[in-house]
């Protein structure tokens, strides 16, 4: 699920970012129509009490390489909801200490049949933008002292309204409730039990779903459809 993101330089995306009251922008925000897993994506997190936007590798588990860090051989661009409370899992510690959000215009889904791509869809906010709930981790190379930041999107069970698009999972879409978002980003909240209600499939925005030929060209091949919010 959710192997690509649409983060275009859109008024809705910028308005959402402004609403997040980000205090630090150490790096230039990344805008792209097609961000795939292992690419860098701009995330919003709180560190040392400061709300900041940083660029992170969209792959939670990294390993040292000759040039710094690279994605681990273990797939981790998404973190499953049912692994968040499993001690020793990739997202266990991050769920308690380094939650983040990813502002975007939309996301992409690929449905597989017999382990082969069957169809592709892009989904975008009908109005404004969306906010994906995620996790992030900081990495330090013990030999060189170099640092890196990684992230993942939390995935939930499939949503009934999206089953025809992707039948295995759906992304965690956070409502644009700033009190809730503030709690999610609050690094002092290390008991995530209050977030359990969020780990059920939920669509808080109207979405436009468009079937496309393939992610790299994203040419429409069918009439777009409206998926109403819950």
Give the topology, please:
Blueprint: E1 4-7, H1 11-19, E2 32-36, E3 40-47, E4 50-58, E5 62-65, E6 68-71, E7 78-80, H2 92-97, E8 99-104, E9 106-113, E10 116-125, E11 130-140, E12 147-156, E13 170-171, H3 178-185, E14 207-212, E15 225-227
Quick summary:
With 230 residues, the chain is mainly beta.
Describe the protein in words.
The chain is mainly beta and 230 residues long. It has a single domain, classed as SOS response associated peptidase-like (hypothetical protein yedk fold), CATH 3.90.1680.10. The chain is 10% helix and 40% strand. The chain is built from three helices and 15 strands. It has helices at residues 11-19, 92-97, 178-185; strands at 4-7, 32-36, 40-47, 50-58, 62-65, 68-71, 78-80, 99-104, 106-113, 116-125, 130-140, 147-156, 170-171, 207-212, 225-227. The strands form three sheets. Strands 3, 4, 7, 8, 11, 12 and 13 form a seven-stranded mixed β-sheet that branches. A six-stranded antiparallel β-sheet has the order 2-1-9-10-14-15, with no helix packed on it. Strand 3 and strand 4 form a beta hairpin. The longest helix has 9 residues, at 11-19. The model has no long low-confidence stretch (mean pLDDT 94).
Corresponding CATH superfamily: SOS response associated peptidase-like
What is the alpha-carbon Rg in Å? Answer: 17 Å
Give the helix tally. 3
Number of strands: 15
Brief descriptors of the model:
single chain; 230 residues; mainly beta; hypothetical protein yedk fold; six-stranded antiparallel sheet; 3 helices; 15 strands; globular
